[in-house]
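Methods, example record. To illustrate the input and output format used throughout this study, we show the complete record for Metallothionein. The sequence lines were provided to the predictor; the line carrying structure tokens was produced by it.
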Amino acid sequence: MSQQQCACPKCDCSVDSQAIEKNGQKFCSESCAIGHTDGSTGCGHGCSCGK
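The corresponding predicted structure is encoded as:
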């Protein structure tokens, strides 16, 4: 099984069985899943995907 990437457009993380699923897409964190509407600048995994 190949690794799937987080559905957040700027995120470089891959997702696994622990992924957060929202609207049929998989995200590596809650911040990515909500589109960084909480003001976060990253996912907590070293990315700056919320900027």
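Annotations derived from this record:
The beta strands are 4-5, 14-15, 20-22, 25-27.
The helical segments are 30-33.
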